[in-house]
Amino acid sequence: MAKKKQKLSYEAKDIQVLEGLEAVRMRPGMYVGGTDIKALHHLVYEVVDNSIDEALAEYCDQIEIIIHKDESVTVSDNGRGIPVDIHPEKKVPALELVMTMLHAGGKFGGSGYKVSGGLHGVGLSAVNALSEWFEVRVWRDKKEYFQRYEKGIPVTKLEVVGDAPRGKTGTTQTFLYDKTIFDTEMSYQFDTLVQRFREMAFVTRGVSIKFIDERSDREMNFYFDGGITSFVRYLNRNREKLHPVIHVEKEIDNIVIDAAFQYTDSFAESIYAFANTINTHDGGTHLTGLRTAITRTINNYARNKKLFKDSDPNLSGDDTREGLTAIISVKHPNPQFESQTKVKLMNAEVKTHTQQVVAEGVEAFLEEHPAAAKAIVNKCLTSARARRAASKARDLVIRKSALESMTLPGKLADCSSRNPQESEIYIVEGDSAGGSAKQGRDRHFQAILPLRGKILNTERARLNQILANNEVKSLISALGVGIGDSFDIEGLRYWRVIIMTDADVDGAHIRTLLLTFFFRYMQPLIETGHLYIAQPPLYRLDHKNKKIYLYTEKERMEKLKELGISLEKANLQRYKGLGEMNPQQLWETTMDPETRTLLQVTIEDAAAADRTFDMLMGSSVPPRKRFIITHANEVRNLDI
To answer: What CA dihedral angle connects 587, 589, 595 and 600, to 10 degrees?
Structure first.
Protein backbone atom coordinates (compact mmCIF):
# COMPACT_ATOMS: atom_id res chain seq x y z
CA MET A 1 0.00 0.00 0.00
CA ALA A 2 1.37 3.41 -0.96
CA LYS A 3 2.40 5.69 1.88
CA LYS A 4 0.36 8.82 2.42
CA LYS A 5 2.19 12.02 1.56
CA GLN A 6 3.30 13.94 4.60
CA LYS A 7 1.13 17.01 5.09
CA LEU A 8 3.08 20.26 4.94
CA SER A 9 2.39 23.05 7.38
CA TYR A 10 1.11 26.28 5.87
CA GLU A 11 0.48 28.67 8.75
CA ALA A 12 1.56 32.21 9.56
CA LYS A 13 4.72 30.87 11.18
CA ASP A 14 5.67 29.27 7.85
CA ILE A 15 5.75 32.57 5.97
CA GLN A 16 9.40 33.50 5.53
CA VAL A 17 10.37 37.17 5.48
CA LEU A 18 13.72 38.00 3.88
CA GLU A 19 15.18 41.16 5.38
CA GLY A 20 17.33 43.64 3.48
CA LEU A 21 19.36 41.95 0.75
CA GLU A 22 18.78 38.36 1.91
CA ALA A 23 16.45 37.83 -1.05
CA VAL A 24 19.29 38.59 -3.47
CA ARG A 25 21.63 36.11 -1.82
CA MET A 26 18.97 33.42 -1.73
CA ARG A 27 17.71 33.97 -5.32
CA PRO A 28 20.61 35.55 -7.28
CA GLY A 29 19.07 34.37 -10.56
CA MET A 30 16.25 36.92 -10.16
CA TYR A 31 18.71 39.80 -9.98
CA VAL A 32 21.83 38.93 -12.02
CA GLY A 33 20.61 35.98 -14.07
CA GLY A 34 22.15 33.12 -12.08
CA THR A 35 25.51 32.12 -10.59
CA ASP A 36 27.35 31.12 -13.76
CA ILE A 37 30.16 32.93 -15.61
CA LYS A 38 27.66 35.17 -17.40
CA ALA A 39 26.21 36.30 -14.06
CA LEU A 40 29.72 36.90 -12.72
CA HIS A 41 30.42 39.30 -15.58
CA HIS A 42 27.00 40.86 -15.00
CA LEU A 43 28.23 42.07 -11.59
CA VAL A 44 30.87 44.17 -13.36
CA TYR A 45 28.38 45.45 -15.94
CA GLU A 46 25.98 46.63 -13.23
CA VAL A 47 28.68 48.73 -11.55
CA VAL A 48 30.08 50.12 -14.82
CA ASP A 49 26.54 50.93 -16.02
CA ASN A 50 26.26 53.44 -13.17
CA SER A 51 29.40 55.22 -14.36
CA ILE A 52 28.05 55.19 -17.93
CA ASP A 53 24.85 56.81 -16.60
CA GLU A 54 27.00 59.66 -15.27
CA ALA A 55 28.57 59.96 -18.74
CA LEU A 56 25.12 60.06 -20.38
CA ALA A 57 24.21 62.86 -18.01
CA GLU A 58 27.39 64.63 -19.22
CA TYR A 59 29.04 64.68 -15.78
CA CYS A 60 31.68 62.04 -16.51
CA ASP A 61 34.12 61.47 -19.37
CA GLN A 62 36.60 59.00 -17.83
CA ILE A 63 35.93 55.49 -16.56
CA GLU A 64 38.56 52.99 -15.39
CA ILE A 65 38.04 49.30 -14.66
CA ILE A 66 40.75 47.16 -13.01
CA ILE A 67 40.70 43.41 -12.36
CA HIS A 68 43.15 42.71 -9.54
CA LYS A 69 45.13 39.51 -9.11
CA ASP A 70 42.78 38.27 -6.37
CA GLU A 71 39.79 38.63 -8.79
CA SER A 72 38.51 41.74 -7.03
CA VAL A 73 37.36 44.50 -9.38
CA THR A 74 37.71 48.28 -9.12
CA VAL A 75 35.49 50.67 -11.10
CA SER A 76 36.31 54.40 -10.98
CA ASP A 77 34.78 57.44 -12.65
CA ASN A 78 35.09 61.21 -12.52
CA GLY A 79 31.34 61.81 -12.21
CA ARG A 80 29.54 63.71 -9.48
CA GLY A 81 30.09 61.05 -6.83
CA ILE A 82 27.27 59.10 -5.18
CA PRO A 83 25.41 61.45 -2.78
CA VAL A 84 26.49 61.08 0.84
CA ASP A 85 24.10 63.42 2.66
CA ILE A 86 21.37 62.08 4.95
CA HIS A 87 18.19 60.94 3.20
CA PRO A 88 15.26 63.03 4.55
CA GLU A 89 12.90 60.04 4.99
CA LYS A 90 15.17 57.07 5.75
CA LYS A 91 17.57 59.08 7.97
CA VAL A 92 20.65 57.27 6.66
CA PRO A 93 23.33 58.45 4.18
CA ALA A 94 22.13 58.25 0.57
CA LEU A 95 25.16 56.10 -0.32
CA GLU A 96 24.20 53.48 2.26
CA LEU A 97 20.62 53.54 0.99
CA VAL A 98 21.76 52.89 -2.58
CA MET A 99 24.08 50.09 -1.45
CA THR A 100 21.67 48.25 0.85
CA MET A 101 18.13 48.78 -0.38
CA LEU A 102 16.59 47.38 -3.54
CA HIS A 103 14.93 49.92 -5.83
CA ALA A 104 16.75 52.85 -4.28
CA GLY A 105 18.55 55.27 -6.59
CA GLY A 106 18.42 58.55 -8.48
CA LYS A 107 16.63 57.07 -11.49
CA PHE A 108 12.97 56.91 -10.55
CA GLY A 109 11.58 60.19 -11.79
CA GLY A 110 13.72 62.54 -9.71
CA SER A 111 16.11 65.05 -11.24
CA GLY A 112 19.23 62.87 -10.88
CA TYR A 113 19.18 61.37 -14.37
CA LYS A 114 17.33 62.12 -17.59
CA VAL A 115 18.47 58.83 -19.17
CA SER A 116 19.85 55.79 -17.39
CA GLY A 117 20.65 52.13 -17.97
CA GLY A 118 20.13 51.18 -14.31
CA LEU A 119 16.41 51.74 -14.15
CA HIS A 120 15.51 48.91 -11.79
CA GLY A 121 17.61 50.37 -8.98
CA VAL A 122 18.81 46.95 -7.87
CA GLY A 123 22.23 47.06 -9.57
CA LEU A 124 24.63 48.25 -6.87
CA SER A 125 22.65 46.73 -4.01
CA ALA A 126 22.53 43.36 -5.80
CA VAL A 127 26.27 43.40 -6.50
CA ASN A 128 26.88 44.41 -2.87
CA ALA A 129 24.72 41.54 -1.63
CA LEU A 130 26.61 39.01 -3.78
CA SER A 131 30.08 40.27 -2.82
CA GLU A 132 32.31 38.93 -0.08
CA TRP A 133 33.23 42.57 0.52
CA PHE A 134 32.55 45.88 -1.19
CA GLU A 135 34.35 49.17 -0.58
CA VAL A 136 33.14 52.56 -1.81
CA ARG A 137 35.18 55.74 -1.97
CA VAL A 138 33.43 58.99 -2.93
CA TRP A 139 34.90 62.41 -3.73
CA ARG A 140 32.21 65.04 -3.33
CA ASP A 141 31.78 68.45 -1.75
CA LYS A 142 35.59 68.80 -1.45
CA LYS A 143 35.73 65.76 0.87
CA GLU A 144 36.73 62.11 0.49
CA TYR A 145 34.28 59.57 1.97
CA PHE A 146 34.70 55.85 2.60
CA GLN A 147 32.50 52.91 3.63
CA ARG A 148 32.97 49.12 3.64
CA TYR A 149 30.36 46.36 3.32
CA GLU A 150 30.53 42.60 3.75
CA LYS A 151 27.90 40.39 2.09
CA GLY A 152 25.67 43.42 1.72
CA ILE A 153 25.93 44.62 5.31
CA PRO A 154 27.79 47.85 6.25
CA VAL A 155 30.65 47.03 8.61
CA THR A 156 31.84 50.62 8.94
CA LYS A 157 29.97 53.88 9.08
CA LEU A 158 30.25 56.31 6.21
CA GLU A 159 33.10 58.58 7.28
CA VAL A 160 35.18 61.45 5.96
CA VAL A 161 38.74 60.20 5.49
CA GLY A 162 40.30 63.36 4.09
CA ASP A 163 39.98 66.30 1.76
CA ALA A 164 39.43 65.74 -1.94
CA PRO A 165 42.16 67.00 -4.28
CA ARG A 166 41.22 70.32 -5.82
CA GLY A 167 38.29 69.95 -8.21
CA LYS A 168 38.15 66.15 -7.85
CA THR A 169 34.75 64.45 -7.85
CA GLY A 170 33.72 60.88 -8.61
CA THR A 171 33.33 57.40 -7.20
CA THR A 172 35.63 54.39 -6.86
CA GLN A 173 34.11 51.02 -6.02
CA THR A 174 36.02 47.81 -5.34
CA PHE A 175 34.37 44.45 -4.72
CA LEU A 176 35.18 40.74 -4.54
CA TYR A 177 32.48 38.32 -5.58
CA ASP A 178 31.25 35.93 -2.89
CA LYS A 179 32.79 32.52 -3.57
CA THR A 180 30.14 30.80 -1.47
CA ILE A 181 27.60 31.85 -4.12
CA PHE A 182 29.64 31.75 -7.34
CA ASP A 183 31.83 28.84 -8.41
CA THR A 184 35.34 29.38 -6.99
CA GLU A 185 36.84 28.01 -10.23
CA MET A 186 35.31 30.84 -12.28
CA SER A 187 37.41 33.75 -13.43
CA TYR A 188 36.64 36.98 -15.25
CA GLN A 189 37.34 36.64 -18.97
CA PHE A 190 39.34 39.52 -20.38
CA ASP A 191 38.04 39.20 -23.95
CA THR A 192 34.39 39.07 -22.84
CA LEU A 193 34.76 42.25 -20.81
CA VAL A 194 36.73 43.96 -23.58
CA GLN A 195 33.84 43.43 -26.01
CA ARG A 196 31.34 44.90 -23.56
CA PHE A 197 33.47 47.96 -22.77
CA ARG A 198 34.16 48.56 -26.46
CA GLU A 199 30.41 48.54 -27.13
CA MET A 200 29.83 50.95 -24.24
CA ALA A 201 32.41 53.36 -25.68
CA PHE A 202 30.85 53.14 -29.16
CA VAL A 203 27.33 54.00 -27.97
CA THR A 204 28.46 56.63 -25.44
CA ARG A 205 30.16 59.28 -27.52
CA GLY A 206 32.95 61.19 -25.85
CA VAL A 207 33.67 58.85 -22.92
CA SER A 208 37.12 57.35 -22.41
CA ILE A 209 37.17 53.82 -20.94
CA LYS A 210 40.38 52.26 -19.65
CA PHE A 211 40.43 48.55 -18.81
CA ILE A 212 43.37 47.02 -16.94
CA ASP A 213 43.82 43.33 -16.13
CA GLU A 214 46.54 43.00 -13.48
CA ARG A 215 46.38 39.20 -13.70
CA SER A 216 47.97 39.22 -17.16
CA ASP A 217 49.34 42.77 -17.43
CA ARG A 218 46.97 43.58 -20.28
CA GLU A 219 45.40 46.96 -20.90
CA MET A 220 42.86 48.33 -23.39
CA ASN A 221 41.69 51.90 -23.93
CA PHE A 222 38.53 52.92 -25.79
CA TYR A 223 37.38 56.29 -27.09
CA PHE A 224 35.18 56.72 -30.19
CA ASP A 225 34.19 60.26 -31.10
CA GLY A 226 32.22 58.94 -34.08
CA GLY A 227 29.86 56.93 -31.89
CA ILE A 228 27.85 54.20 -33.61
CA THR A 229 29.08 55.30 -37.05
CA SER A 230 32.51 54.21 -35.87
CA PHE A 231 30.91 50.98 -34.61
CA VAL A 232 29.54 50.14 -38.09
CA ARG A 233 32.90 50.93 -39.70
CA TYR A 234 34.58 48.68 -37.14
CA LEU A 235 32.22 45.78 -37.87
CA ASN A 236 32.67 46.19 -41.63
CA ARG A 237 36.40 46.74 -41.70
CA ASN A 238 36.98 43.39 -43.48
CA ARG A 239 34.03 43.66 -45.89
CA GLU A 240 33.47 45.30 -49.25
CA LYS A 241 31.14 48.29 -48.71
CA LEU A 242 28.44 49.34 -51.18
CA HIS A 243 28.16 52.92 -49.86
CA PRO A 244 29.24 55.21 -46.97
CA VAL A 245 27.69 54.68 -43.53
CA ILE A 246 24.18 56.16 -43.24
CA HIS A 247 23.66 57.85 -39.87
CA VAL A 248 20.47 59.34 -38.47
CA GLU A 249 19.82 60.81 -35.04
CA LYS A 250 16.74 62.60 -33.74
CA GLU A 251 14.95 63.24 -30.45
CA ILE A 252 11.18 62.69 -30.26
CA ASP A 253 9.25 63.08 -26.98
CA ASN A 254 12.53 63.03 -24.99
CA ILE A 255 13.51 59.73 -26.67
CA VAL A 256 16.77 59.88 -28.66
CA ILE A 257 16.86 57.57 -31.70
CA ASP A 258 20.38 56.98 -33.02
CA ALA A 259 20.90 54.61 -35.96
CA ALA A 260 23.74 53.81 -38.38
CA PHE A 261 23.76 51.26 -41.18
CA GLN A 262 25.69 50.16 -44.25
CA TYR A 263 25.33 47.44 -46.89
CA THR A 264 28.27 45.18 -47.75
CA ASP A 265 28.97 42.26 -50.09
CA SER A 266 28.36 39.84 -47.20
CA PHE A 267 25.44 37.39 -47.22
CA ALA A 268 24.75 37.62 -43.48
CA GLU A 269 23.05 40.41 -41.55
CA SER A 270 24.81 42.03 -38.58
CA ILE A 271 22.30 44.09 -36.60
CA TYR A 272 22.79 45.05 -32.95
CA ALA A 273 20.40 46.96 -30.70
CA PHE A 274 21.12 49.07 -27.61
CA ALA A 275 18.86 50.79 -25.10
CA ASN A 276 20.49 53.35 -22.81
CA THR A 277 23.89 51.86 -23.81
CA ILE A 278 22.83 48.33 -22.80
CA ASN A 279 23.12 45.65 -25.48
CA THR A 280 19.60 44.24 -25.75
CA HIS A 281 20.54 40.83 -27.13
CA ASP A 282 16.95 39.78 -27.69
CA GLY A 283 16.12 43.02 -29.51
CA GLY A 284 12.77 44.60 -28.82
CA THR A 285 10.65 47.43 -30.17
CA HIS A 286 13.63 49.54 -31.35
CA LEU A 287 14.96 46.66 -33.46
CA THR A 288 11.50 45.94 -34.90
CA GLY A 289 11.11 49.60 -35.84
CA LEU A 290 14.50 49.68 -37.58
CA ARG A 291 13.84 46.54 -39.62
CA THR A 292 10.32 47.61 -40.63
CA ALA A 293 11.50 51.07 -41.71
CA ILE A 294 14.37 49.79 -43.87
CA THR A 295 12.24 47.18 -45.65
CA ARG A 296 9.30 49.52 -46.27
CA THR A 297 11.46 52.45 -47.44
CA ILE A 298 13.53 50.41 -49.88
CA ASN A 299 10.38 48.85 -51.34
CA ASN A 300 8.75 52.27 -51.76
CA TYR A 301 11.86 53.73 -53.38
CA ALA A 302 12.27 50.81 -55.79
CA ARG A 303 8.59 51.00 -56.81
CA ASN A 304 8.68 54.76 -57.35
CA LYS A 305 11.88 54.57 -59.42
CA LYS A 306 10.51 51.65 -61.49
CA LEU A 307 13.35 49.36 -60.36
CA PHE A 308 10.76 46.56 -59.96
CA LYS A 309 8.49 45.09 -62.53
CA ASP A 310 4.85 45.71 -61.69
CA SER A 311 4.37 41.95 -61.36
CA ASP A 312 7.29 41.50 -58.95
CA PRO A 313 6.40 40.91 -55.30
CA ASN A 314 7.74 43.27 -52.65
CA LEU A 315 11.12 42.54 -51.09
CA SER A 316 10.84 40.70 -47.80
CA GLY A 317 12.65 41.65 -44.61
CA ASP A 318 15.19 38.86 -45.24
CA ASP A 319 15.92 40.33 -48.69
CA THR A 320 16.56 43.84 -47.38
CA ARG A 321 18.73 42.62 -44.49
CA GLU A 322 21.19 40.48 -46.47
CA GLY A 323 24.60 42.11 -46.15
CA LEU A 324 23.24 44.83 -43.84
CA THR A 325 25.29 45.98 -40.88
CA ALA A 326 23.26 48.20 -38.55
CA ILE A 327 23.33 49.63 -35.05
CA ILE A 328 20.22 51.03 -33.39
CA SER A 329 20.75 52.84 -30.11
CA VAL A 330 17.92 54.51 -28.21
CA LYS A 331 18.08 56.61 -25.08
CA HIS A 332 14.80 56.57 -23.18
CA PRO A 333 13.96 58.33 -19.89
CA ASN A 334 11.79 55.40 -18.77
CA PRO A 335 12.68 52.19 -20.63
CA GLN A 336 10.79 49.00 -19.91
CA PHE A 337 12.97 45.90 -20.05
CA GLU A 338 11.81 42.32 -20.05
CA SER A 339 13.92 41.46 -16.99
CA GLN A 340 16.67 42.78 -14.71
CA THR A 341 19.27 41.40 -17.15
CA LYS A 342 17.80 43.84 -19.72
CA VAL A 343 17.98 41.69 -22.85
CA LYS A 344 14.83 43.04 -24.53
CA LEU A 345 13.25 46.51 -24.77
CA MET A 346 9.45 46.55 -24.45
CA ASN A 347 8.33 50.21 -24.88
CA ALA A 348 5.66 50.26 -27.62
CA GLU A 349 6.21 53.93 -28.52
CA VAL A 350 9.86 53.26 -29.39
CA LYS A 351 8.84 51.20 -32.42
CA THR A 352 6.85 54.11 -33.89
CA HIS A 353 9.57 56.70 -33.23
CA THR A 354 12.37 54.46 -34.53
CA GLN A 355 10.39 53.65 -37.65
CA GLN A 356 9.80 57.34 -38.35
CA VAL A 357 13.41 58.47 -37.81
CA VAL A 358 15.01 55.60 -39.72
CA ALA A 359 12.55 55.85 -42.65
CA GLU A 360 13.25 59.58 -43.00
CA GLY A 361 17.02 58.98 -42.94
CA VAL A 362 16.98 56.09 -45.44
CA GLU A 363 14.63 57.91 -47.81
CA ALA A 364 16.81 61.05 -47.79
CA PHE A 365 19.97 59.03 -48.43
CA LEU A 366 18.47 57.05 -51.32
CA GLU A 367 17.18 60.22 -53.00
CA GLU A 368 20.50 62.05 -52.60
CA HIS A 369 22.70 59.10 -53.67
CA PRO A 370 21.05 57.40 -56.68
CA ALA A 371 24.10 55.26 -57.55
CA ALA A 372 24.32 53.89 -54.01
CA ALA A 373 20.54 53.45 -53.96
CA LYS A 374 20.64 51.38 -57.15
CA ALA A 375 23.45 49.20 -55.71
CA ILE A 376 21.41 48.60 -52.55
CA VAL A 377 18.24 47.69 -54.46
CA ASN A 378 20.16 45.38 -56.81
CA LYS A 379 21.71 43.67 -53.79
CA CYS A 380 18.23 43.15 -52.31
CA LEU A 381 16.80 41.88 -55.63
CA THR A 382 19.64 39.36 -55.94
CA SER A 383 18.91 38.25 -52.41
CA ALA A 384 15.21 37.84 -53.27
CA ARG A 385 16.01 35.60 -56.26
CA ALA A 386 18.38 33.53 -54.14
CA ARG A 387 15.78 33.28 -51.37
CA ARG A 388 13.18 31.94 -53.77
CA ALA A 389 15.70 29.41 -55.11
CA ALA A 390 16.64 28.47 -51.54
CA SER A 391 12.97 28.01 -50.64
CA LYS A 392 12.54 25.58 -53.52
CA ALA A 393 15.75 23.76 -52.60
CA ARG A 394 14.74 23.61 -48.92
CA ASP A 395 11.31 22.25 -49.80
CA LEU A 396 12.99 19.69 -52.05
CA VAL A 397 15.30 18.63 -49.21
CA ILE A 398 12.31 18.27 -46.86
CA ARG A 399 10.15 16.44 -49.43
CA LYS A 400 12.97 14.13 -50.45
CA SER A 401 13.85 13.41 -46.83
CA ALA A 402 10.22 12.67 -45.98
CA LEU A 403 10.22 9.89 -48.58
CA GLU A 404 13.29 8.33 -46.99
CA SER A 405 13.20 6.48 -43.69
CA MET A 406 11.68 8.97 -41.23
CA THR A 407 13.55 11.94 -42.80
CA LEU A 408 16.96 10.39 -42.01
CA PRO A 409 19.91 10.24 -44.43
CA GLY A 410 21.13 6.76 -45.35
CA LYS A 411 24.61 7.16 -43.84
CA LEU A 412 23.24 8.10 -40.39
CA ALA A 413 23.66 5.36 -37.80
CA ASP A 414 20.72 6.32 -35.60
CA CYS A 415 20.21 5.47 -31.93
CA SER A 416 17.39 3.24 -30.72
CA SER A 417 15.97 5.82 -28.29
CA ARG A 418 13.26 8.12 -29.59
CA ASN A 419 13.47 10.46 -26.60
CA PRO A 420 15.37 13.59 -27.77
CA GLN A 421 16.34 14.55 -24.21
CA GLU A 422 18.41 11.41 -23.71
CA SER A 423 19.77 11.22 -27.27
CA GLU A 424 22.88 12.71 -28.83
CA ILE A 425 24.44 12.79 -32.28
CA TYR A 426 28.14 12.82 -33.14
CA ILE A 427 29.02 14.63 -36.36
CA VAL A 428 32.20 12.78 -37.31
CA GLU A 429 34.90 13.59 -39.83
CA GLY A 430 35.40 10.84 -42.41
CA ASP A 431 34.33 7.24 -42.90
CA SER A 432 37.28 5.79 -40.95
CA ALA A 433 36.47 7.71 -37.76
CA GLY A 434 32.78 7.13 -38.44
CA GLY A 435 33.39 3.36 -38.49
CA SER A 436 35.22 3.44 -35.14
CA ALA A 437 32.54 5.69 -33.63
CA LYS A 438 29.72 3.42 -34.83
CA GLN A 439 31.39 0.37 -33.27
CA GLY A 440 32.39 2.10 -30.04
CA ARG A 441 29.17 4.00 -29.27
CA ASP A 442 26.28 3.14 -27.00
CA ARG A 443 23.61 2.39 -29.61
CA HIS A 444 20.79 3.14 -27.19
CA PHE A 445 21.31 6.92 -27.11
CA GLN A 446 24.24 7.79 -29.43
CA ALA A 447 23.79 8.40 -33.17
CA ILE A 448 26.68 8.83 -35.63
CA LEU A 449 26.65 10.98 -38.79
CA PRO A 450 29.91 10.70 -40.77
CA LEU A 451 30.75 13.55 -43.15
CA ARG A 452 32.70 12.87 -46.33
CA GLY A 453 35.22 15.64 -46.89
CA LYS A 454 34.75 19.28 -45.97
CA ILE A 455 31.35 20.95 -46.08
CA LEU A 456 30.85 24.16 -48.01
CA ASN A 457 32.17 27.39 -46.49
CA THR A 458 28.79 28.90 -45.66
CA GLU A 459 30.29 32.35 -44.99
CA ARG A 460 30.81 32.78 -48.73
CA ALA A 461 27.60 31.21 -50.06
CA ARG A 462 23.89 31.95 -50.18
CA LEU A 463 21.35 29.55 -48.78
CA ASN A 464 20.38 28.09 -52.16
CA GLN A 465 24.04 27.14 -52.80
CA ILE A 466 24.36 25.73 -49.29
CA LEU A 467 21.29 23.52 -49.74
CA ALA A 468 22.84 22.03 -52.87
CA ASN A 469 25.66 20.55 -50.76
CA ASN A 470 25.01 16.87 -49.95
CA GLU A 471 26.73 16.98 -46.55
CA VAL A 472 24.67 19.99 -45.46
CA LYS A 473 21.47 18.30 -46.64
CA SER A 474 22.33 15.21 -44.60
CA LEU A 475 22.98 17.37 -41.54
CA ILE A 476 19.68 19.24 -41.86
CA SER A 477 17.73 16.02 -42.33
CA ALA A 478 19.40 14.30 -39.37
CA LEU A 479 18.81 17.11 -36.88
CA GLY A 480 15.17 17.63 -37.84
CA VAL A 481 15.03 21.38 -37.13
CA GLY A 482 14.93 22.71 -40.68
CA ILE A 483 16.88 25.80 -41.73
CA GLY A 484 16.31 29.50 -42.32
CA ASP A 485 12.64 30.54 -42.16
CA SER A 486 11.56 26.95 -41.43
CA PHE A 487 13.96 26.48 -38.48
CA ASP A 488 12.12 25.09 -35.46
CA ILE A 489 14.06 24.06 -32.36
CA GLU A 490 11.07 21.98 -31.23
CA GLY A 491 11.88 19.48 -33.98
CA LEU A 492 15.38 18.75 -32.63
CA ARG A 493 15.90 14.96 -32.54
CA TYR A 494 19.02 14.98 -30.33
CA TRP A 495 19.56 17.05 -27.17
CA ARG A 496 23.33 17.14 -27.69
CA VAL A 497 24.80 17.82 -31.12
CA ILE A 498 28.50 16.98 -30.83
CA ILE A 499 31.18 17.92 -33.37
CA MET A 500 33.96 15.31 -33.29
CA THR A 501 36.92 15.94 -35.60
CA ASP A 502 40.59 14.98 -35.72
CA ALA A 503 43.06 16.83 -33.50
CA ASP A 504 44.98 18.22 -36.50
CA VAL A 505 44.83 21.15 -38.91
CA ASP A 506 42.25 19.53 -41.20
CA GLY A 507 40.10 18.60 -38.22
CA ALA A 508 40.24 22.17 -36.93
CA HIS A 509 39.25 23.45 -40.38
CA ILE A 510 36.26 21.11 -40.61
CA ARG A 511 35.21 22.06 -37.08
CA THR A 512 35.38 25.77 -38.04
CA LEU A 513 33.32 25.16 -41.20
CA LEU A 514 30.66 23.41 -39.13
CA LEU A 515 30.66 26.15 -36.48
CA THR A 516 30.28 28.76 -39.23
CA PHE A 517 27.25 26.91 -40.59
CA PHE A 518 25.63 26.56 -37.17
CA PHE A 519 26.30 30.21 -36.26
CA ARG A 520 24.91 31.61 -39.53
CA TYR A 521 21.97 29.26 -40.15
CA MET A 522 21.14 27.46 -36.90
CA GLN A 523 22.12 30.01 -34.24
CA PRO A 524 19.22 29.08 -31.89
CA LEU A 525 20.83 25.65 -31.58
CA ILE A 526 23.81 27.38 -29.94
CA GLU A 527 21.75 29.84 -27.91
CA THR A 528 19.70 27.02 -26.36
CA GLY A 529 22.84 25.11 -25.34
CA HIS A 530 22.58 22.08 -27.64
CA LEU A 531 25.91 22.34 -29.54
CA TYR A 532 29.12 20.75 -28.18
CA ILE A 533 32.67 19.97 -29.30
CA ALA A 534 34.18 16.60 -28.37
CA GLN A 535 37.70 16.56 -26.96
CA PRO A 536 39.65 13.53 -28.22
CA PRO A 537 43.04 12.97 -26.58
CA LEU A 538 46.20 14.30 -28.15
CA TYR A 539 48.47 11.63 -26.64
CA ARG A 540 48.50 8.21 -25.10
CA LEU A 541 51.24 7.65 -22.54
CA ASP A 542 52.19 4.03 -21.77
CA HIS A 543 53.75 3.81 -18.31
CA LYS A 544 54.15 0.72 -16.11
CA ASN A 545 51.45 -1.26 -17.93
CA LYS A 546 49.04 1.67 -17.69
CA LYS A 547 47.52 3.67 -20.52
CA ILE A 548 47.19 7.35 -19.68
CA TYR A 549 45.31 9.62 -22.08
CA LEU A 550 46.39 13.26 -22.24
CA TYR A 551 44.18 15.94 -23.79
CA THR A 552 46.35 19.07 -23.88
CA GLU A 553 50.01 20.02 -24.20
CA LYS A 554 49.94 21.41 -20.68
CA GLU A 555 48.53 18.14 -19.35
CA ARG A 556 51.26 16.19 -21.14
CA MET A 557 54.05 18.29 -19.65
CA GLU A 558 52.54 18.18 -16.16
CA LYS A 559 52.08 14.39 -16.28
CA LEU A 560 55.66 13.76 -17.44
CA LYS A 561 56.95 16.03 -14.68
CA GLU A 562 54.74 14.28 -12.11
CA LEU A 563 56.03 10.84 -13.17
CA GLY A 564 59.61 12.05 -13.45
CA ILE A 565 59.94 11.01 -17.10
CA SER A 566 61.92 13.00 -19.66
CA LEU A 567 60.31 13.72 -23.02
CA GLU A 568 62.96 11.60 -24.81
CA LYS A 569 62.25 8.52 -22.71
CA ALA A 570 58.46 8.83 -22.63
CA ASN A 571 56.50 6.16 -24.52
CA LEU A 572 54.08 8.59 -26.15
CA GLN A 573 51.72 8.12 -29.06
CA ARG A 574 50.42 11.26 -30.78
CA TYR A 575 46.87 10.85 -32.11
CA LYS A 576 46.48 12.82 -35.32
CA GLY A 577 43.19 11.20 -36.30
CA LEU A 578 40.19 9.62 -34.63
CA GLY A 579 40.64 6.65 -36.95
CA GLU A 580 43.95 5.83 -35.23
CA MET A 581 41.99 4.81 -32.12
CA ASN A 582 40.17 1.52 -32.00
CA PRO A 583 36.45 1.57 -31.04
CA GLN A 584 37.13 0.78 -27.38
CA GLN A 585 39.71 3.56 -27.05
CA LEU A 586 37.39 6.05 -28.76
CA TRP A 587 34.60 5.13 -26.33
CA GLU A 588 36.83 5.38 -23.26
CA THR A 589 38.37 8.72 -24.18
CA THR A 590 35.80 10.68 -26.16
CA MET A 591 32.32 9.12 -26.06
CA ASP A 592 31.74 7.64 -22.60
CA PRO A 593 29.66 10.17 -20.61
CA GLU A 594 31.43 9.06 -17.43
CA THR A 595 34.93 9.94 -18.64
CA ARG A 596 34.69 12.21 -21.71
CA THR A 597 35.16 15.98 -21.89
CA LEU A 598 32.71 18.05 -23.92
CA LEU A 599 33.02 21.76 -24.60
CA GLN A 600 29.67 23.53 -24.83
CA VAL A 601 29.53 26.13 -27.60
CA THR A 602 28.12 29.46 -26.41
CA ILE A 603 27.87 32.99 -27.80
CA GLU A 604 29.08 35.52 -25.24
CA ASP A 605 29.05 38.36 -27.73
CA ALA A 606 27.26 38.03 -31.06
CA ALA A 607 29.05 41.05 -32.57
CA ALA A 608 32.45 39.61 -31.66
CA ALA A 609 31.50 36.20 -33.07
CA ASP A 610 30.22 37.87 -36.24
CA ARG A 611 33.54 39.66 -36.75
CA THR A 612 35.55 36.52 -36.03
CA PHE A 613 33.68 34.33 -38.53
CA ASP A 614 33.86 37.09 -41.12
CA MET A 615 37.61 37.44 -40.60
CA LEU A 616 38.39 33.70 -40.58
CA MET A 617 35.95 32.49 -43.23
CA GLY A 618 35.06 35.57 -45.32
CA SER A 619 36.30 36.50 -48.77
CA SER A 620 38.79 39.18 -47.65
CA VAL A 621 42.30 37.71 -47.37
CA PRO A 622 44.41 40.50 -45.71
CA PRO A 623 42.62 40.36 -42.29
CA ARG A 624 43.08 36.58 -42.18
CA LYS A 625 46.75 36.96 -43.10
CA ARG A 626 47.25 39.52 -40.33
CA PHE A 627 45.58 37.15 -37.85
CA ILE A 628 47.87 34.25 -38.87
CA ILE A 629 51.01 36.39 -38.63
CA THR A 630 49.96 37.82 -35.25
CA HIS A 631 49.26 34.40 -33.72
CA ALA A 632 51.93 32.33 -35.51
CA ASN A 633 54.09 32.05 -32.40
CA GLU A 634 51.20 30.54 -30.43
CA VAL A 635 51.03 27.41 -32.64
CA ARG A 636 52.13 24.26 -30.82
CA ASN A 637 51.02 21.33 -32.99
CA LEU A 638 51.21 22.18 -36.67
CA ASP A 639 51.07 19.10 -38.88
CA ILE A 640 53.79 19.14 -41.50
So the answer is: -100
